Structures are given as C-alpha cells and as structure tokens.
Amino acid sequence: MRDGELESAFERALEAIAHDGAFPEVEILQHAAHPRHGSVTLSVTIDRPGGADLVLCERIAARINASLEGLATPYELEVESAGLERPLLKPSDYERFKGMRARVVTSLLIDGAKTHRGVLRGLRGENVLLEIGARELPLPMATIKSAHLEFDPRADLRREKRERKGIHGASN
What is the pTM of this model? Predict the structure, then answer.
C-alpha cells in the first residue's frame, strides 16, 4: 500500500469524526502525515469548548485506528489537545477568542516588531485587532505567520481569588 492511500483513509476518518454526533463540538484544528523511518506519523490536534481532555483524545485515536485497520502501511498516530495556548488558525478564531490574551507573529515589521502580545479585540476588515496597552494595533491577516492564545497563570489565580471572595463575601 502506498502512503497516499493511508493519507486518504486518514482524511476520510477525520472527516467522519467532524460530522459524528458521538463527538459533539469537536474541532479538528490541524492534521498532518509525515513519512518517518519506513512508516508514517499521523498527527491531529483537536479542541472543543471547555478543552479536549485525555479521554476525548483516546476516543478519537481509537476511532481513527479502527478506520485504518487492515491497511498495510505502518503508522504511528498522535492525537493531542490544542491546550491552553491554542493556535489561532482561521479568521473566526480571532472573533471567537475576543478578550483573551494572544501572541501574534507577523512576517513583516509592524510598529517596529514582528512579535506582538496583547488582548484580542476581533477583526476589522482584513485586520486582526490586538489591544496593546491603551491602544489597538491592526495586524493585516496576510502578514500573520503564526498566532496563539497565551495562558497567563497569574490572571487565572487572580480570577479564582476574586471568585472565592465573591462566594465567601456573599455568605457573610
């Protein structure tokens, strides 16, 4: 069997998962097939609202393996969660994660830098808006090389502390 047949079967398995009610709201962010030492490494990155846990990754891996059963090409399968620092790949991601911290790398210097960190403010036309300090910086979509959410554990701890105070304050 040629690697192309394995890759086609892999694509079909992912397409089936994307439309399967057993995997509600699962989003397949990225996938790839890479030849490696006589076999093929298949990788897929998934997400869903609230995050993708290990159990979901295992279920998806089992589904893909079942779909590829019987193929002669040896392969290794990697299924991973997008994690806390989820990549931003589509224009809709910039709207969906509005208000969250992000790191955006551009191919051109914009405002004297190629790496920009701030709070996502969505899209305006063909520009991603990033709030940096007290101003909004428009970043043309065509110049974005990579972008991902940035997890700030300090902000998480501050939010948790505020929530605890609210709960304890309400009962006093």
Answer: 0.77
pLDDT 10s digits, 53-65? 999 999 999 999 9
Whole-Å CA distances, 112 to 2, 32, 51, 105: 48, 34, 35, 12
Mean pLDDT in residue range 5-9? 92
Same domain as 55, residue 12: yes
Residue 120: how many other CB atoms lie within 10 Å:
23
Domain assignment of residue 170, yes or no: no
Domain stop point among 81, 108, 133: 81
Helix (H, G, I), strand (E, B) or coil at 32: strand
43: tokens are 């990788």
For residue 144, which phi and psi values (nearest 5 degrees)? Answer: -80, 120
pLDDT digits (tens, 9 = 90+) for 73-105: 899 999 999 999 999 999 999 999 999 999 999
Contact 93, 38 (CB under 8 A): no
Main-chain phi, psi angles of 65, to 5 degrees: -60, -40
Q: What is the C-alpha to C-alpha distance for residues 172 and 159, in angstroms, rounded to an integer?
A: 20
- 114 with 44, same domain: the answer is no
Distance CA 146, CA 84 (A): 16
